[in-house]
Amino acid sequence: METSRQIAKDLLSIKAVFFRPEEPFTWASGIKSPVYCDNRLTLTAPEVRTHVEEGLAEIIRIYYPEAEVLMGTSTAGIAHAAIVGHIMNLPMGYVRSGAKDHGRQNQIEGRLEPGQKVVVVEDLISTGGSVLEVVEVLRNAGAEVLGVASIFTYGMKKGLDRMAEAHVINHSLTDFDEIAKVAAEEGYIPESDIERLIAFRNDPSDESWIGK
């Protein structure tokens, strides 16, 4: 819990997670969201980056001690997989969003042998779609995917259901509820906004929280 709170404070301090319920952001899917999340900003904040990468390494040590290879999601997870791989002295690679149209036409970059035990490194999980595509590619290549280590998860029902259906375990450093709580405690948002934020988390397609 202490790690979850520290990472929440870190992400808020560098505006990697930024709340704006009065002027919602629009996701690529068209969903109106009270939160903007860009964990790439952790890479340009050395102290926060250290907390994140050491935290991800700890998740892997605790939950996936048999890990043999780390695979980052393209593109946001690549740098994190590389840094954590360096910390843990583990091989790393990454999975492209699609196969290359030249050379060897790889979709998986880096050496991966059938049967190897893999942990996927992801920056954030919302509906779970992109990380599950990566897991499918790795499984089709013969890897044994132990699970996912991520920085942040929204905890949306759709994402949780999809991950469970695909038999994929995820462990995140922090989550939406923790960040909302810390944001209120530290004055980033009024406490009255927490209810609106949780309403969004529970059902992103229901926009009734806007303007409350």
Which secondary structure elements does this structure contain, and how are they paired or packed?
Elements: H1 2-13, E1 17-19, E2 25-26, E3 32-33, E4 35-37, H2 46-63, E5 69-73, H3 78-88, E6 92-95, E7 108-109, E8 117-125, H4 129-140, E9 144-153, H5 157-165, E10 170-175, H6 176-185, H7 193-202
Helix pairs in contact: 1-2, 1-6, 2-3, 6-7
Low-confidence stretches: none
The best one-word shape is globular
Topology order in helix (H) and strand (E) letters? HEEEEHEHEEEHEHEHH
Distance between the termini: 30 Å
Strand order of the largest sheet: 7-6-5-8-9-10
- Using only CA atoms, what is the Rg? 17 Å
| Largest sheet properties | 6 strands, mixed
Number of helices: 7
Q: Find the structural class using helix and strand composition.
A: alpha/beta
Mean pLDDT: 92
Helix content: 25-40%
Q: Give the number of DSSP strands.
A: 10
User: What is the beta-strand fraction?
Assistant: 15-25%
Structure description:
The two termini are 30 Å apart. With 212 residues, this protein is of the alpha/beta class. It is globular and about 55 Å long. It is 39% helix and 22% strand. Helix 6 (176-185) packs antiparallel against helix 7.
